[in-house]
Amino acid sequence: MIGDRWTLLILRECFLRTRRFEGFQSALGITRHLLAERLKKLVRQGILRRIPYQESPKRHEYILTQKGLDLYPIMMAIVHWGDTHMVDERGRPLLHQHRKCGKDFDPVMVCSECGEPLSAKEVHTHPGPGARSAPAAVAPTTSKTKARSRAA
Fold first, then answer.
1. In a domain, 132, yes or no
2. pTM attached to this predicted model
3. Is residue 88 part of a domain?
């Protein structure tokens, strides 16, 4: 759904308040055909809503639906990764300001229960109530188990 480059860039522009076809095309340098295809796909998937803003010629704006807005944490995680690993000496290309407190912030993922920041090393995953079948348990690999499996 959002795995291809252009779709992610279109979504980024949506979160930056781009709404119109020409705005997307200008910001991204994408061909009209490819942009139209991606916008139709996002509308079909319920991520964007297409709203007419002009009758003659007929033109539309593309607005994020709630399903689209729910992608914001994912987009911010990607932005944070880029800000951490891809920024040059000039610094971040965009800063994000929390409207409520007025401060620039770094997007972080926190535990919904205790509020502590999360990293992959601090999370254990287990089957939830909607799991179809329990995944096979995977024992951690150590140098001893690797040596035993090579010897076998």
1. no
2. 0.77
3. no
